[in-house]
What does this fold into?
Amino acid sequence: MSATATTTARAHPEKNYLNADHTIASWLLTTDHKRIAVLYLISVTFFFFIGSIAAGLVRLELTSSQGLLLTSEAYNKMFSAHGVVMIFFFLLPSIPAAIGNFVIPIQIGARDLAFPRLNLLSWYLYIIAGGLILFALAGGGFDAGWTFYTPLSSLYSDTQITIALVAIFIAGFSSIFTGLNFIVTVHKMRAPGMTWFRMPLMVWANYATSLLMMLGTPVVAITLFLVVLERTLGIGIFSAEIGGDPVLFQHMFWFYSHPAVYIMVLPGMGVISELISAFSKRPVFGYHFVAFSSLAIAGLGFLVWGHHMFISSQSVYLGVIFSLITFLVAVPSAIKVFNWAFTMYKGYVEFKTPMVYAIAFLGLFLIGGLTGLFLAALDTDVHLTGTYFIVAHFHYVMVGSSTIAFLGAVHFWWPKMFGKMYNEFWGTLSAIVIFAGFNFTFFPQFILGYLGMPRRYHYYFFEPAWEVYNVMSTMGASILAIGFLMPAFYLTASLLNGKKAPQNPWGAKGLEWEKAASPPVTFNFSEPVVVTEPAYNYPSADRPGGAMVHQLDQLDEDIEKLEGD
Amino acid sequence: MLDSLLANFPIFPEQASEHAADYDALFWSITALTVFFTLIVVVMVAYMAFKYRKGSNVSRKGQLDSHLGLELTWSGIPLILALVIFFWATANFMKQRDMPEDGIEIFVVGKQWMWHLQHMNGVRENNELHVPIGVSVKLTMISQDVLHAMYLPEFRAQYHVIPGRYTDLHFTASKVGEFKMLCAMHCGTQHSEMVGKVIVMSQADYAAWLEKGGNRFEKEAKTMAASGAALFKRKGCANCHTEVDNERAPSLHGLVGRTRSFNDGATHVADEAYIRESIYEPYNRITRGYINTMTAYKGQLTEVQVRELIEYIKSLGTTAGVGDGKIVPYEQPEQPLGADPGTPDNATKIANERKSAAATQFEQSGGRN
It folds into this structure.
């Protein structure tokens, strides 16, 4: 039987989601979550390179304390473009919409997301928003930074802010719909036997992320829309001179934009759980702690927005409370890091490309998280906020963690997505180059911030001593750029002449590896999936056969029962 | 060797205020903690990744899927350390946010793209601030346009400068010299040119500098309160705001620190922010017993002028009853025309009488002046 199947496969390449249909319409009107994921992957990569070009110009400009190529106006537009494009058009959709879209339905044994057409609409909204942003950039750009603080953004700046805000408003709905889709899918579409505590941690992390998307994004969408109203109709909401309050804008903006940081980093944490487990051949240490720490981070994420506003005239006592809650985030973060590290304990660690990315993530997330202590602490924040220390900190979290996790995820699931293996040597090298280039770029910025260099400064003629660190940072950015360009080449090459990927190239556990072909068929599985074992059920030296007893299986059953009711 | 290295690769910003040393102690303590935890994790990851690499010949017996004791350890220890930092940093911060009662007060206006600073004795400066060493200096700040942030890195001090709202910060300089004064909030095209310096002088030099009238030699400089008094007269404020509450307007003598009652029943302790609002947007809160007749000076007076008026009003005495008898008691109107805010009936009567006179102006303004 199986021999016959193999013979047929040789004669006619087996049908999968990629070769099921070849027309352009079959891609642009697809409702297959995997095809939509591929569309997202291409689009977020495009915007990543747009954002990178802006970043490159910013870094080039800063090699001189006197300014180099750009006018101040152009410089301000450049860092604004970099921030808006990277955050709203790369980081927010990258892992959930491109990677999660592909793997989450497969990981829980579903044929597709709960609302396939809504999923396609999400992508179209994203593309419309992306088109508008490109239009705003082509039409002269915008200069109020990605934070759009009022009244600069509403009454003073004479740039394409209105279009940019409308674009972000639309992109917000793309994000809301993705979140909605994931939540319903995880609740209602799990395969028989896929209980809550058998779900891979990637699913938990994206579930927590989806909650944030659903609850937070509407707030920022409406806030930015109010800025548009103030700009276009002069309705005083956020500008003191027409009766509004600029600090109110900051509250509303950060109410979303702090959770947004977790929207960017939580899915990455889910990815890292998968990678470390797969390449250690061990279940993630303390599965329940890691799963609940995602929810804890999501929950606490909504209660810390005021730590962006310690010196904004917010009440001192409010600042104290926000600082305290921010420190509590250290606990679930520490839980995650130590559990990841301990996952390798008595495992079989293999340094394939995705694992190298995962280890790079651990180092960078650690520094990103720990430097957050300086900013959560009221006193130290006063001197560091608004400087390059902040810039370095959030790049360690958003690039060092989220982007590295995204690349790790791309390398991990690439064989599954496209059925091709990439060159392992180049893959590992790219991870190492990115890690080195990243630290070279952003570590000097911690020092610059502590020395007092404000962010968003076009020049620093009054303190030429800062040049040395800025030049270092720009040199690092050049290395980083090479690192980011490398995957574009060898991954593309793998599509053309890569080795055919086996169903489970990493020997990993998980439905996508054990039950779905590489690449999967249109509805993911050729036969119905029934789950009979916990996630990451690798064979154990102690328990031959690998059957692990999870004491909390009982809890699973209780939750199932509740859901049934 | 180390000196020349540090000259080329500086890592210690200068400490020029009394707070800077406290700040740096905390900063480097958190740094030590950060390095410590980074090392722990790096060593742990490296050790396990190497020891348990695929193909290594070590026993895998006794694998663990989870361990409650370990989980509690690595969540408990970071929690305790985090709380220690929290209390330390909060104590420092509270101290910094507690404004000194004595010392020098400077009024600061941030605008695109410069700092305007005004000493209480009337000496004015742009993008430069002269202060004496060892005396606490309080900056009271407001923006004329967009958000700015007053950032004094060598003093480890920063606070936002906001349109429509007074904010403040204070420092005590501990070193003579010139230090950076930056704007750390993106404020538009020439944001990075909104820079100046704080010039810390010995107390004797500072006194001499003030004496000669600052860098502009403003020997005739009026104090802010005196300028305010002149403006008060020029704008005709005194036509209505006399020494006593009268039928036109409540008196401003002894206003600061007194609880004001408003027509809508609310009360508020009159502070600088309230006086500023009452000049720019008097219609927002009408003192009990009065109607909305005052001109709104929004767009007509600059923030500096308003601050001068406030200084003048402050000079008329602070809390009621204090001020060595110069203050005419609030309850003793010279003309018993009913400016007594305690009797609403009387107030309504007066209001009706006043209405005809004010009707034209009031209606033209649509009730908003």
Summary: Chain A has 19 helices and no strands. Residues 1-11, 544-555 of chain A have pLDDT under 50 and may be disordered.
